[in-house]
Amino acid sequence: MFDLQKLDALSAFTLRIGEDDVQHWTEIELEQSIDGFSSVGFTAPFEPSRKAFRERFRPFSYAPIAVLLGGHQLQFTGTLHSVDPTFTTEERSVRVQAVALPTAICDSTVPGNFGAKEFSGLKLEDIANELCKPFGFAARFADERSTFIDTDANGELERDRSSKKSIQRRIESAFDIRFGRVKCGKEDKIFDFLCRLSKQRGVVMTDSPTGDLVFQRSAQLGRPVVHLEEGIPPLLSVTPQFNSREFYSEVTAVVPAKRGRKAGSFTLKNPFMNDAGTIRPFTYRAEDTDVGGAPQTAAAFMGRMFGEAVSWDIELPTIVDPRGEYFRPNTTLTITAPSAMIYGKHELLIRGVTKRQTKDSTTCKLNVVLPGSFSGEIPARLPWQEPL
Predict the structure, then answer these.
(1) CA dist 114 → 46, 103, 286, 288, 295 (Å)
(2) Which residue has the higher pLDDT, 316 or 294?
(3) What is the pLDDT of residues 25-40, one digit of tens each?
(4) Strands 250-255 and 227-229, how do they pair?
(5) Quick one: which H or E segment has residue 261?
(6) Counting beta carbons within 10 angstroms of the beta carbon of residue 149, is it exposed (0 to 12), middle (13 to 18) or buried (19 or more)?
(7) Is the dihedral of CA 71, 74, 25, 16 positive or negative?
(8) Is the predicted pLDDT of residue 263 greater than 90, yes or no?
(9) Helix (H) or strand (E) run with residue 347 in it
(10) Which domains, from first to last, does the chain contain?
(11) Residues 217-249: pLDDT tens digits?
């Protein structure tokens, strides 16, 4: 299991602004997610009388920031985003927030000299690279073989080459599909436009440690990085969040007629809405797909519905799993936690990871969701149902 003393050496953060390492920060927090861009927040002493400090923490500088773990493993590449100084009679400090490079497309439209961008017959990766090029980073698909093919319980490399090839063929066939004709309007946020397209390919967007935009599929079940159990270290706490307003009895994808495309719709039922008389339908327009793609679009929406309606926050006293690897999103774990309504051993998807270090401790918060939340697969059962 965990050897916390042995893992401490892997838990040291290195914070770099430009070419300089920041030595005197008091706390730091790195947030990573399967379906969002990473961010870093840290607090440091602030000395306004020193020119070097004034320059380092200058508002709107968008200074380059990097975070490493264990002295050498790059975890984050981004820019300084916000600077909030605070002073009291006892101390002066500054709270700094940095965001990953691809976050720029969440706030930005295409440059004015681009006008509206129309793409015809291109793959998602090609479209994304053209839109991201002005911002200085690339777009790529994750090497998903590492998601499916890892090491076995004894640390030996998986030998099932036929399985590897089969999985890779499925990945390539999905990613090679070209869009007929899509348009990013002059006033459209680039992220929103790419998000609509990525949902049609069953992928989500995140960032790489080097600052690229990455499209990836949700991890498959069967390779959990750790098993956690209520009352047994290192598990500190498990806190569920249930949002009943995000839970629907059915989802309908409506495809409007457009440019000679036929209109149509597809409705998918929620098998876990069993209460008699409970009706909570949700219908939405699937603008960027055709009638044949409506079932996949509805399934993707229902998967996201489960992810938004049900999650758990897990607190641990380490950022490293029993294998000696840093916890990361898009992996799975198994957990038994009756007090959090996980009544039997259940495998869940790690959606987000927050690594935090202060002078006194290193902790990790894992946000976990139901399997299928980002792959459009309906779970076989829910954790609060009786174990099979």
Answers:
(1) 41, 20, 26, 21, 34
(2) 316
(3) 899 999 999 999 999 9
(4) unpaired
(5) none
(6) middle
(7) positive
(8) no
(9) strand 342-358
(10) 4-104 (2.30.300.10), 107-216 (3.55.50.10), 227-369 (no CATH)
(11) 888 889 999 999 999 999 999 999 999 999 999
